[in-house]
Automatic annotation (TrEMBL):
Keywords: RNA-binding. Residues 75-188 form the NTF2 domain. One of its GO terms (molecular function) is mRNA binding. It comes from Brugia timori. SUPFAM superfamilies: NTF2-like. GO terms for cellular component: cytosol; ribonucleoprotein complex. This is NTF2 domain-containing protein.
Length: 203
């Protein structure tokens, strides 16, 4: 939260049965989040340069700071926070991050494409009482204004102990400030390194 009250946040909009991450700027300190929309915010440092733009509130012109474009890492961190929050609180809605063009790969399973197939794949994984601990988030821009987000963390399901994982997302823009998950590749690290040990022993 800046001292001037400007809030920059990401919110997820449900459009045509799809959840999209949108970068929004608001001149109000408080904001309303519909029940089905995960909505979080983050603050920028006060030394960032802001350009003033005209705005009219209650019939009066006001100067409102224009926020700079968030970096891929900043967008990635907000996306990750909201994605894993939804995975924990409403796993049945996680499929809304994806579209009919999206690809989803979980560990050693075969890739699936399309929102409906991804929904069924997530249901089979049974993310019940799921908790995530995130260690690192890396983000970079890619072709066609997309973003690559890599997450390293620990995931526990139910009473089972946490397992370390690596997950890579490719976010594609629908509009200049709206993204959806085009690719999602998830890997359990214990399985990956366990398979590597088995292969080395065989050789």
């Amino acid at each position: 939260m800046r001292e001037d009250g400007l809030v920059l946040r990401n919110s997820f909009h449900v459009t045509a049965n799809r959840l999209e991450v949108t970068v929004l700027a608001s001149a109000y300190k408080s904001h309303f989040c519909p029940r089905r929309i995960a909505c979080l915010q983050w603050s920028f440092s006060s030394n960032m340069k802001m350009e003033g733009v005209g705005d009219v509130i209650n019939g009066r012109a006001n100067e409102v700071a224009k926020t700079p474009q968030p970096s891929p890492k900043e967008i990635g961190r907000e996306f990750v926070r909201q994605y894993y929050t939804m995975l924990s609180e409403r796993p049945q809605d996680v499929f809304r991050f994806y579209s009919h063009e999206s690809y989803f790969v979980h560990d050693t399973d075969q890739p699936v494409q399309g929102q409906q197939k991804i929904q069924k794949a997530i249901e089979r994984l049974a993310f019940i009482d799921c908790k995530a601990r995130i260690y690192t988030v890396s983000g970079t821009a890619t072709m066609n204004n997309g973003l690559v987000i890599q997450v390293c963390g620990e995931l526990s399901i139910g009473d089972n102990p946490g397992r370390r994982f690596l997950q890579t997302f490719i976010l594609c823009p629908q509009t200049p400030k709206k993204y959806y998950v085009h690719n999602d590749v998830f890997q359990w690290l214990d399985r990956a390194f366990g398979d590597a040990v088995i292969q080395s022993q065989k050789s």
